[in-house]
Design brief:
Layout: E1 2-8, H1 12-25, E2 30-36, H2 43-49, E3 53-56, H3 63-73, E4 78-82, E5 86-87, H4 92-103, E6 107-111, H5 119-136, H6 143-154, H7 157-167, E7 172-174, E8 180-184, H8 186-191, H9 201-215, E9 223-229, E10 231-232, H10 254-257, H11 260-268
Parallel strand pairs: 1-2, 1-4, 2-3, 6-9
Antiparallel strand pairs: 4-8, 5-10, 6-8, 7-9
Length: 272
């Protein structure tokens, strides 16, 4: 069973699409833990109506702080940290767990628009998404526009994902795509909770697993499972005016924690 942890602030149309596909395409039994950071558009009430566990914060908190709230409430050994502005593929969870188990991974992510199997494929899909969202964003970010973007981008979504699964079955690559992170609970004993000082939490998570792998050897760095693709609207909804983080005084930059050599490791992940 899986504990799925997602932080939200408003974006009700996005949240409804997220839930629709999550409920339809997740094959394992799961609990959904929503960290609501002060929504006032009915998003909290919507998630309660579908049976999610909703933690209501009275202010907007950073990503890592919210994920750690979810961990404290979670019950299961598989922890999935999902953005709300994604559309999951059919059986995403079972396929991801299968690839992780096969490769002995404690932490892994899906692939997506942000990164595919090589630089050429990544550039191609990014260009396509830029064209699709550039045109359709003229009509706003409501339910219809978001669904049309997704349809224009992939055509038959299930076929697109099925073909990727068949073509890249069992293929993994070191790196990360932060909108969907799957983690075994035992990983927390090795690398700890999310660092609540780092809003760029997926970058920090990768560097912590990489460092632990080199220094201790009991965990592998985060890998991307190429046979599982989730769509991410990326910063499409960034026009939402978020309140300042309540914990903003606690936040630091990656460069305040990691050395220049460590940060160069991150840049090399995106090289061919």
């Amino acid at each position: 069973m899986i504990s799925i942890i997602t932080a939200i602030y408003n974006q009700l149309p996005v949240n409804k699409i997220f839930w629709e596909y999550l409920n339809k395409n997740t094959s394992q039994p799961f609990e959904l833990i929503i960290i609501d950071n002060g929504s006032n558009d009915g998003s909290s009430e919507f998630f309660k109506s579908v049976g999610a566990i909703v933690i209501n914060n009275n202010a907007n908190y950073s990503y890592p702080y919210s994920q750690n709230q979810g961990i404290k409430t979670s019950r299961y050994d598989w922890l999935a940290f999902l953005n709300n502005d994604i559309i999951v593929s059919k059986n995403w969870d079972t396929q991801l767990i299968r690839s992780m188990t096969s490769h002995g991974l404690d932490v892994a992510t899906v692939c997506g628009i942000e990164q595919l199997e090589n630089l050429g494929a990544t550039k191609q899909i990014k260009r396509r998404w830029k064209r699709v969202k550039g045109l359709l964003s003229l009509f706003g970010y409501g339910d219809k526009a978001l669904r049309t973007m997704h349809r224009w981008m992939y055509g038959d979504w299930e076929q697109f994902c099925r073909e990727r699964n068949e073509r890249f079955a069992g293929v993994v690559k070191e790196g990360f795509v932060g909108n969907t992170v799957m983690m075994r609970r035992q990983a927390l004993d090795k690398i700890g909770l999310w660092d609540e000082r780092i809003q760029a939490a997926d970058f920090d998570l990768y560097l912590r697993t990489k460092t632990r792998s080199e220094q201790v050897g009991d965990i592998k760095p985060v890998h991307i499972c190429m046979d599982v693709f989730n769509h991410h609207y990326i910063r499409l909804t960034a026009k939402t005016k978020y309140p300042p983080f309540a914990d903003r005084d606690n936040l630091i930059q990656l460069a305040d924690k990691w050395s220049e050599a460590d940060l160069q490791v991150l840049s090399k992940l995106h090289q061919p």
